[in-house]
Design brief:
Elements lengths: L19 E6 L5 H15 L3 E6 L13 E9 L2 E2 L1 H9 L11 E8 L6 H14 L3 E2 L11 E3 L4 H22 L1
Parallel strand pairs: 1-2, 1-3, 3-5, 5-6, 5-7
Antiparallel strand pairs: 3-4
């Protein structure tokens, strides 16, 4: 018989357990930004502290202050936008320091087959290399929420639900 013991990864010195998530995005048209704030609503509904910031306002060192990091990018030629890729490239300085944090990704594109999944997979690949725990979904947008142009009702629901799921996982691991 196995006895499983759950250990909270993020217990804070002195007993405090404020769980914090960063939603970092790049958006030129506003579609990815809208998705970021829909994800934020889901996170907030779970009672988790959240900062939602444009990538230009995020420094690599900031990533260490969060228990969960969700990154969003529009799709450019099947991959993340240059400012997001730049942040991830610079994050090599933190290799090993983001281990066991919760990670997630989301994307928007101009059309169906526009590269949303390849963009999300590129983002998740970087988070996995950092040793982060990635939140997938067995029933809807498996890798993270996607939107074709402006988020429609379906995409809005996926973003909100994803925010809740990432928040719950982050609380479970770090709360």
């Amino acid at each position: 018989m196995f006895i499983r013991k759950f250990v909270r990864l993020g217990s804070r010195p002195g007993g405090g357990t404020t769980t914090k998530i960063l939603i970092c995005y790049y958006s030129r048209s506003g579609n990815t930004k809208k998705m970021a704030y829909l994800i934020q609503k889901g996170v907030m509904e779970e009672g988790v502290e959240v900062d939602t910031r444009d990538v230009k306002d995020v420094k690599v060192g900031d990533l260490k202050a969060y228990d969960g990091i969700v990154i969003g990018s529009p799709t450019y030629y099947g991959g993340p936008a240059a400012p997001i890729k730049d942040l991830l490239d610079k994050s090599i300085k933190l290799h090993g320091e983001l281990q066991d944090k919760v990670g997630g990704a989301f994307s928007s594109s101009a059309n169906i087959g526009g590269g949303n999944e390849t963009t999300i997979m590129a983002l998740l690949q970087a988070l996995l290399i950092h040793g982060m725990v990635v939140c997938g979904d067995s029933s809807d947008d498996h890798y993270g929420p996607v939107s074709i142009e402006k988020p429609n009702r379906r995409a809005e629901g996926m973003c909100f639900r994803y925010g809740k799921r990432v928040a719950r996982l982050t609380k479970l691991l770090h709360g």
